[in-house]
């Protein structure tokens, strides 16, 4: 199941998209409701886009401008509705943003959600890998049309508008997320990762990319460039995705997937078959302690980047970091049993976290997660010019 992280990421977003957006396996009835909601949204988008939306970008008569404004307002309302359904925690965070910024974030989230749905939605279940590959190629081509101001429906139009408002919004992370979806396609992608470097690439594509998508929207502090803030944004996306993976070990095993690195399992004496069978022993607990420490290491790097953000963006990012990192505490409190006990934070706990997040956002960058940072190394994402150029060539096939 795809795990894009739009929903949990405000600096980065919980993609979150269903594994793709918050990552939970939903009960059948609830999954059907959310699937129907997205299908209805796409139908509404097509209905709103009756006529040639491309002409709305080319013609500037008063009638065209008024129709564009009407369709655009309705599109943003639909983006808000979809975000509220699929990514409740993420949606709450957007309420602390300016009206312009929150609309942009909703539009980006919906694009991520629709991307995830290509490989994780009901239609994907009955399509072969070649058909899914073709769908993703078509989606990539459609993305390029959006960047050229040629929307095909009203949800596309919302993203076109975001591009106009935030001209530094890069297309590369959107394309990289599509590549991340490919990594989860059965028969094409991977259901095992040998090394953390391989897993890190996956985490970048499905979650770190979101940090690069939303960074121009969040803005940076005076004297700080977007380039300066890239590494912390990527770190938060990777931290959130690692948290998703740790939370969902049992659910993923049911689907025949193990995301955690095989080299780490060997180091701690954990047999992959034991994970598939949900065996909780001392070796597995030590293995989990190490994985949780690694996720916290990335949260640490992300926290140091919060002062780089524009002041109005710091609270939603701090809240995202605080709420999601608490999932790691729940896993610990569950005695590392993520086979039978799903770690989650209740709505009440999230609300109680907000005042502390607010205080931290006033003096950002300081966080004590009680880990030995010397145990982990900064990744190849540090001090980069173009993140997508830093990956080893032998990983690019995935």
From TrEMBL:
Residues 1-29 are annotated as: Disordered. One of its GO terms (biological process) is carotenoid biosynthetic process. It comes from the Eukaryota. Its EC number is 2.5.1.32. Keywords: Carotenoid biosynthesis, Transferase. It is an enzyme of class 2 (transferase). The keyword Manganese does not apply. GO terms for molecular function: geranylgeranyl diphosphate synthase activity; squalene synthase [NAD(P)H] activity. It catalyses: 2 (2E,6E,10E)-geranylgeranyl diphosphate = 15-cis-phytoene + 2 diphosphate. InterPro entries: Isoprenoid_synthase_dom_sf, Squ/phyt_synthse, Squalene/phytoene_synthase_CS, Trans_IPPS_bact-type, Trans_IPPS_HH. This is 15-cis-phytoene synthase. It comes from Sargassum henslowianum. The lineage of its organism: Eukaryota, Sar, Stramenopiles, Ochrophyta, PX clade. The gene is PSY.
